[in-house]
TrEMBL record:
It comes from Ornithinimicrobium pekingense. This is Membrane protein. It comes from the Bacteria. PANTHER family: SLR1927 PROTEIN, SLR1927 PROTEIN-RELATED. Residues 368-396 are annotated as: Disordered. Residues 201-282 form the DUF58 domain. Keywords: Membrane, Transmembrane, Transmembrane helix. InterPro entries: DUF58 (IPR002881). The chain crosses the membrane at residues 12-31, 37-53. Signal peptide: none annotated.
Amino acid sequence: MRSPWALLTTRGKLFVVLGAVVVAAGVVLGYEDVTRIGLVLVALPVLALILMPRRTPRVRVHRDVEPSRLAPDERGQVVAHFTNVGKRPTPLYLAEEHLDFQLGDRPRFVLPRLAPGEDRRLRYAVRSRHRGAYPLGPVLLRQRDPFGLTFLTLQLSSTTEILVLPRIHPLGEGRIRGMSRGSEGEMPQMVALHGEDDVSIRTWREGDELRRVHWPATAHRGELMVRQEDRPARRRALLILDSRAAAYPGSGVRPAYEWAVSAIASVARHLVADGFVVHLLTDTTLRDGTTDHPVELDAALDALARVQPDQDARLDRLAAAAAPFTTGGVLVVAAVVAHDEEALRTLAAIRQPGSRAMAFVLDPEKFGTRTESRNGTARGDRDARGGRDSAADDGRRVAPTALLADSGWQTVVVGPHTEVPRAWAAIGSTTLAGARA
C-alpha cells in the first residue's frame, strides 16, 4: 500500500509544504488571514486524497490481434475492448498498454468514463523484427484530480500473447528423396525382370485415382488395374535444433541462434509441402514429450517462435533422443554450432548406413562470437570457407564438418551473411559419401 505522501504529485507536495510554512508564519506573526490561507493550501491536497477512489475499476479487457500470428516486420493491429462490468461509472483515466520494446512504443490513450455495461474499443499497431512470444498488457491506469495535486496508478491485470513466427525462406521446388531401404524414407520403384505387369500393376482399390488406371492391363484382365509407382512407405523427417546457450554467447537477440531457428523453420515448411511427416527435436520438445509425435506445420512454427537458448541444453542428449528415429531411415536435418567436438561426434554417430542426414554447421567466429571448449580454450571454425574446413593451427583438432562428413552427413558451414536457400541448395548438391558442402 502506497503512503499518502507518495500519491501526491510535485504540485501537491509543494502545496503541503508551502501551506505548512504559511500556517507557521501566520501563527508566529499573529495574522489569522495568513493562517487561513495556509490551512487552505494544506487542505486541498488532503481533500483530494480523501476523495480519490483507490480501488481498481471493474473493467474487463479483451484484445483481438489481427492477424493472430505475425511474420517478422509484419504490422499487426490490436483492438483492445474495455468493458465496465461494475455497477458504477468509471472515472476518466490516462491509460498505457505495457508492451515489450521489440513491439514498438507503448501506446498511451485516454480511457473515457464508462457507464455500467458500456464498451469502448481502442486500436493500436504493433510490429517486431524478431520472432518470439510477446505479452500484451497489463494496462496501467493513471488518474489525477482536477487540480493535479494527486496521482494514482492502477493496473488491469488482463494480458494477451502475440506470436511472431520465425523468418521463413522459400527453399525452391526441388524434392528431397530419402535414401533408406528400411521402413522410412521414399522407396525406389520395384521393377520386375519379366515386365512391369508382374510387380508395378495391381488391382484397383477404392480411393485410387482414375489417372493411375493402367488401361492395357485392365483390358487384358477384364478388371480395373492401376500402376503402383511406389511401395507404400511413410516419409518422415527429424529436425534437430541445437539450443545450447554456451554455443550462442551473449544476451538478447543472438544472430547465430536466430539463423538456426529460421533455417529449421524454413526446412519444416519445405518438407511438409513435400509430403513429409515432421518431428521436431529441441530441448523443449524433449522435456514435454512431444518429439515422439508428428507435428503439424503451424504447431512447429509456434514452437520455434517460443524456443530460446537453454543453459541446461546438451547436444548429446538430443543425439540420444534422435537415435531411435534413425534406425528406421528417417531423414535428419540439424542446425548445430561448431562448439564441442565430443558432442559433434555423438551427433555424427546417429546416422545409419543408407539413410540421409544433413546439417547446417554454424561457425561461431563468423557470427562474431567465441565459444569455449571444456578445457577453457577458445574454439571456432577458423578455416571454414564454403564448407571446406581445415584443422586448427596445432593440427590436432578435427574440423567440425569433417566429423560429420566422415559419418556420411551432408554439411555446409554458414555465417551471418549466408542465405538459408543458398545453404540448403549447397547441402542438396553434395553426395552422401563424405560430403563437405
